[in-house]
Amino acid sequence: MSRIIASAAIRGAHKYVKDAEEKLNALIKEKGEEQEVAFPNTAYYLPAILALTGIEVKTLSDTKRALEQAKLLLPPLVREKLWLPYLGNTLDAGIVTLIATEIIEALKYVEGYKPEGIWLGFTDDNTLRLQGIKLVDGRMSGFAACVGALPTNEQAVELARSLQQKNILVFMVSSSGGKSMAEQLAEEGIEMNWDTFLVPYGKDTSSAILALNFAVRAALTFGGIKPEGPQNAMEVARKILLYNKERVHAFVLALGADPGVNGSGQLITDEKYAAAAGAINFGFPTLSDIDIPQILPTGICTYEHVVSNIPLDKIVGKAIEVRGLEIKISEVPIPVPYGAGFEGERVRKEQMQVEFGGKSSTAFEILRGKPMNEVEDGKVEIIGQDIDSAEVGTAMNLAILVDVAGRNFSEDFESVLERRIHEFLSCANGVFHMGQRAIAWIRISKEIYQKGFRLKHIGKILVAKIHDEYSKIVDKVQVTLITDSNKIEEPLEEARRIYYERDERLGGMTDEDVDTFYSCILCQSYAPDHVCIVTPERLGLCGAYTWLDCKASYQLNPHGPNEPVKKNKCLDPVNGQWEGVNEYLKVKSHGNLERFNAYSMLEDPMTSCGCFECIVAILPEANGVMIINREFTGMTPIGMAFSTMAGQVGGGVQTPGIIGIGKVYITSKKFISADGGIKRVIWMPEELKKEIEDRLHKRLEEINEPDLMEKIATEKDAVTSEELLAFLEEKKHPALSMPPMI
Ligand code: SF4
Ligand code: ZN
């Protein structure tokens, strides 16, 4: 049977080569051979071609060279009886197809193509880095390239949901019977983007190359494989294809028949066969719901190569089996799908049934360890009205109190588990969660409300997930949800006290007291080179991870995001630089960072991801720094609001002069101590000043500057830089007479 595939794939490859050649010649005629060719924002030229041939395609003339290479591999159009019983020709046809389709897609950009509507087109390197790391480290279990469409929109939604639920990224390309799966999802109002794991590439079958050149770049970016030019192309290509076979768990789903192809009884187009042959080279098998010929013997793929005629409701399961994927699915007893694919999903105002917290009401969450006999396992209690009582689109108050008990549970673990509430709730389809502690913000969509989602399901998710992930230390979990405004104040007060105590617990400990710091690389999911080094006197910049948290988290899970980092030799006690930290940093930033200073914001400062509680920025004209917290939306003396400034830090790069920090760090003795410390602070929003008032007082007493409190301006005193300078001079702020910052 596979001879049919071979000859169809070869025919497809021939068509693509012809197509590419015609387009290319026309463009050369029109624009000349030196016309530039590039996908947007990538350092890898035409990535598949770079990987397979070593050619760096920059111009139409380079493109021509690449196409010539492809033609050398193009197997002749054979009659079926000449087919040989091995995959060689199919594989060659696949390679040719990869090259030719990449040329076709790249030439679209030369012609001025801009992705429109639902289609996203080429994935740039930035997105690749943000998302690809999840594939590589296992948070995404793999990707499915869905080619074609399903019989009905409902089935398309079902397929998408079942893939999302298994943390499988979904690429959508091509069409069958004139329709594509992405269009079906769009018609059903499904949110499609990288964050929801649903990525529509393009409607042509040739756009399948965009999924494959994503896979190629994953190998180049994360696999440490370097292109070495055309001489060593074979060896490099082999490494890239092997890397993909072993680490990128992808497969192709060929969905739906193409009526009337070829008149030969063939059910899908030659082009689709050719694209499938391209994928087989990567070890990515093809599965289909229709009766196309199979290629069962193993060889390139781990198991079968093409498996067909699978009922749609079984196709995901079968794909997982054929690709050899290991997927852990959490059994969460709620009426909506649950999985990492839903974590980044937003619930917009128009879509929301009800919200809690944010700017509209009070919401907070706290997790505490309790004695065994005070916790009834699995109990979810609601105090107050359920969400049925709220008018659609309005806000309610909510307290989420999680009590856990376990023989091996220690108080140190509380904040570690509490921090996970964000992720646990976000992974439910239709639930949006942001923030933590008393700045939590939750939305529930109308869609899931109609499916029967109620408050108790928030409790059920937490019970299920905490058992699932922390069975080592937790034996019992119970959740209390309070919406009653009269009963929420007291636990809120108590929670604030506990947050405060937790932050204070570290108070007495200094960086000099310990020989080991901890790392946090949780945020590498989107800032791939970002590393937080968490010391007793400097907590993670999100404010959620103190040195103790990281220590506990490491005990719980030695393979998790927090690792001990030995300080070893101190290289610079003033700036806060240690040999052991630098070495660790080099490895974990994938060679992108050499060193970092824990106590300076000016010289080799720590990197920032995106979730800092505050930004500290230098105001050179005033010889000091301003601090702005995330909640403050007004203008600042630097002429930018928080959101604008946040765009300038972040992404895991060092940006001297501007850093992201956790609030507690402001009153640490090590707060930019190399740059002059707390005396440099000249401006902060009033609400932040109020929030840290007690600690700030204490700190200012320590340095014998109690008056400094009044000398730090807020938005009430100054908004522009001129106003600020006038204020500082009037108050005789010490920063003005300190040595110049730069
Ligand atoms: Fe970890 Fe730092 Fe991200 Fe916080 S900001 S989660 S400490 S990497
Ligand atoms: Zn972060």
Query: Can you count the helices?
Result: 23
Low-confidence stretches: 81-85
**Backbone shape:** globular
CATH architecture of the largest domain: 3-Layer(aba) Sandwich
Strand order of the largest sheet: 3-2-1-4-5-6
Number of domains: 3
Output mean pLDDT.
90
Structural class: alpha/beta
Helix content: 25-40%
Distance between the termini: 74 Å
β-strand number: 23
| CATH topology heading of the largest domain | Rossmann fold
Q: Give a short account of the largest sheet.
A: 6 strands, parallel
Strand-residue proportion: 5-15%
> Any idea what the radius of gyration is?
29 Å
CATH class of the largest domain: Alpha Beta
Query: What hetero molecules are bound to the protein chains?
Result: iron/sulfur cluster, zinc ion
How does this model look, in words?
The chain has 742 residues and is α/β, with parallel strands linked by helices. The protein folds into three domains: 3-323, 3-Layer(aba) Sandwich (Rossmann fold); 343-495, Bifunctional carbon monoxide dehydrogenase/acetyl-coa synthase(codh/acs), Chain M, domain 3 (2-Layer Sandwich); 511-737, Bifunctional carbon monoxide dehydrogenase/acetyl-coa synthase(codh/acs), Chain M, domain 5 (3-Layer(aba) Sandwich), CATH 3.40.1470. 35% of the residues lie in helices and 15% in strands. It contains 23 helices and 23 strands. Strands 3-2-1-4-5-6 form a six-stranded parallel β-sheet, sandwiched between helices. A four-stranded mixed β-sheet has the order 10-7-13-12. Strands 8-11-14-9 form a four-stranded mixed β-sheet, with helices on both faces. Strand 2 (168-173), helix 7 (181-187) and strand 3 form a beta-alpha-beta unit. The protein is globular. The structure holds iron/sulfur cluster and zinc ion (ZN). Zinc ion (ZN) is lined by residues 523, 542, 609-611.
